[in-house]
């Protein structure tokens, strides 16, 4: 057992850090507690660096705990991804502390616990670990979403997320039970061997579809997307960020592992359904975003649309498709973190996040205006930014399959249409920044230095991923190779 | 060495970005950054030359299955020579600008643009493939637009910038088609690969591609009929004129022709290029005879010398063209900067008939301008003599008619330069400004002195024994034309030519009405086409297509929003419906 614990060293560090934050809370004064987030973020930075240690990466390709936990390139990539996301969200949470009113340290600790859940999902190689880690994320998010107890919106979002989340968990666990009944095992390795023979079994298909529905809820794919706008809007903004980036990516790592590597033949059989889901998700997200004036809601719809684009990588059923998902998610992380941070800085407590609050931002803070513009342009998929390259790779991976099946072309057409539509509302943001007629407020925006550094890093990453894509593509390709252990 | 090569290209970019983003608060720091970048590039160029050999640094920008895009540099003898010209002359012009632009409000913006321009120009010189060259080619277009229109509050400057940009775009259109054709027919855009496959292709096709590519050179190097932008571009600050119209941008076309000479060699395109070059040099020299603005005279003279170079390429000798390009870059930059020095001393007076008697008042400018003039006229033993001789040699061997044209242009060149020199520097001052003129400070005169050195000596690097016939012809026209011009203009108060030649002089003065003809074409053809396109755009595209699509999608968005009731029970209901739909979809 001792030898196996080194597999989960990163997760253990994160959980220990969460406990330490809770403990430190007892000894700190009210005013000093928010700054604890910066220290926690720094500590996570250390964990992030430790993940590159050869003693740890040397374990890659192996399984632990009787095969339910798997450490490979994909898992490593996502663990680092989640760590980065959490670092940014913690820095963000410090800015947000005054709006939480109470329980600042608990908020930070819950972010860390959710993070540990995400890191476990990256390694899940068994339905039991899959379910437990997913629930660890979801349950902590119920709390994170409703954390502003003095705000009706936050509570409403919490209740909605709780009930719909419970429904999806029910789907998931029911599906797992059915799959177990047919395959006789919860282990991915066993299901991988058995599934080709079960493609004719309706019970197995039923089960897998329920599992898919549970995961589709996580990534907010059509038709399980209705919760996203309300919850994104009502939740405290750092929670929204973590939900949109971390929780979504956790769903995707499981989809990649499950549908890319465990049941590839089922994926091939369901390819039509996956294409339809991807296409409808793209359409729904983009079309609903068009008339939107609330920025957080706008980004919620945009995040639905992005889930659709990402599903294209699953549809491609290839290493290239997986690599494209990873690349896209990386760009999405930096873009969304920066966008939400800026929106939070610009809006005031008690006021809504109406798009008009961006008016005159270029005079209030040219740096924030430029950064938000870059985010919008990147999300719209315009070169030379990260969003363009991610979309390019996704489209390319699907196009590689397209010769021989018209359905792929239809999906590509929908994707392109979605991108065109999205340019309209993303540029609405830019227009609001630079060309608003009335600028009700022209006071400069104060930005704390850690936030400034975080924003600077995000902007640099968006530019780097867009302008010098060669190295990151190699990383993504390396991580996308999922080898299975021959037994 | 590869790092050095990349640094040559990237230093000016870094400077442009740093100044442009406002990294420096003080004017001095910005200028120092810009000057430092170009001088750094120059020193690195010298390092590359000292190291010798050829380099092909190459980075893979993007590599995914089925697609690889490289960024590569090709550093050979041709490239090094041009690097030396661009960064060397560029350095001196940067330094001169410190003095010339001293009092300008937008001092920092000026240096940011200057660095951007040098970066773009170096990109053309270093590129190892057509695509990269085209990108930098357009960047040169953009940065020259910014520099020519630097004083954009002046309508004439803004118009000139626009004119330069648009005229260049006309040529670039041909260039782009040429590149696409090369890519389609020959299957590569890298010069090194192309040089290998071209010999196996039909001459008619490569000739056509070569001619289309030459269209790009016609724009940048201002060959007839796309020459109209260059004289107007004199609206920019004078150091910019020296930079763009002597050493760099206009030379880019000639450089590019030499770079892709393998493509046109032995095809019909050569003949066409030679004649266009000859014609340009003749017309420009004629027009220069009757101009009064000191910078415009130099601009037409530049056109005429560029015609020489293009003609040399067309006659099959890129070596002679590059030789003349190099010597011309130094002495023409010297002349432009000398003119700039005069203009500053005379409080921005540019009419040569309001100058005079500057010899005693501005001795350093006087002597260096004299050296530049002698080099341009081709006085034996000055640099221009050797390079002009080389071109005349080639012309005599290949095409006797063009040889006669070239000799006649040489005669005209000596005539208008003597006219300029005698009127501006000799005799008595013709205005109060000229009377009070005083020599400029060292920051402006030292670059003049430094440029005077290569103007005299650059020819010896490539000197060879001239053909006796050519030598005789050029010396005779030189002496004859100098004497005539001196008799006509020494002590003259106004130009005597209009009185004697009337209509001919007027035609020259009005530049053969090229601008008027173009204007007429634009008014009558383009305006109507534009109106038609506007109607289609307004009613069909904007009205039907855009508004129609916009309306439909917007409506769809609003309808879909109805599903988003905010009611939890409804949401849970949609969940169930969705799942059932998926079940039906997958199980049937």
Written account of the structure:
The complex is a heterodimer of chains A (487) and B (588). Chain A has a two-stranded antiparallel sheet with strand order 1-2. In chain A, strand 1 and strand 2 form a beta hairpin. Chain A is 76% helix and 1% strand. The model of chain A has no long low-confidence stretch (mean pLDDT 89). Chain A has a domain of 218 residues. Chain A is built from 22 helices and two strands. In chain B, helix 11 runs parallel beside helix 14, helix 14 runs antiparallel to helix 19 and helix 15 packs antiparallel against helix 21. Chain B starts with a helix and ends with a helix. The mean pLDDT of chain B is 86. The interface between A and B is large, with 43 and 31 residues.
Give the topology.
The complex is a heterodimer of chains A (487) and B (588).
Chain A: H1 2-5, H2 9-27, H3 36-50, H4 54-57, E1 62-64, E2 69-71, H5 73-100, H6 104-123, H7 127-145, H8 152-183, H9 188-194, H10 202-218, H11 227-234, H12 237-262, H13 264-269, H14 271-289, H15 295-316, H16 319-346, H17 361-364, H18 366-379, H19 386-402, H20 406-434, H21 449-467, H22 470-480
Antiparallel strand pairs in A: 1-2
Chain B: H1 2-20, H2 27-51, E1 58-64, E2 67-72, H3 77-100, H4 107-126, H5 130-148, H6 155-186, H7 191-197, H8 203-220, H9 229-232, H10 238-247, H11 249-259, H12 261-264, H13 268-289, H14 294-314, H15 318-345, H16 358-361, H17 363-377, H18 383-398, H19 400-425, H20 432-435, H21 442-457, H22 468-489, H23 497-501, H24 503-509, H25 514-561, H26 568-587
Antiparallel strand pairs in B: 1-2
Helix pairs in contact in B: 1-2, 1-4, 2-3, 2-4, 3-4, 3-10, 3-15, 3-21, 4-5, 5-6, 6-8, 8-11, 8-13, 10-15, 11-14, 11-15, 13-14, 13-19, 14-15, 14-18, 14-19, 15-17, 15-18, 15-21, 17-19, 17-21, 18-19, 19-22
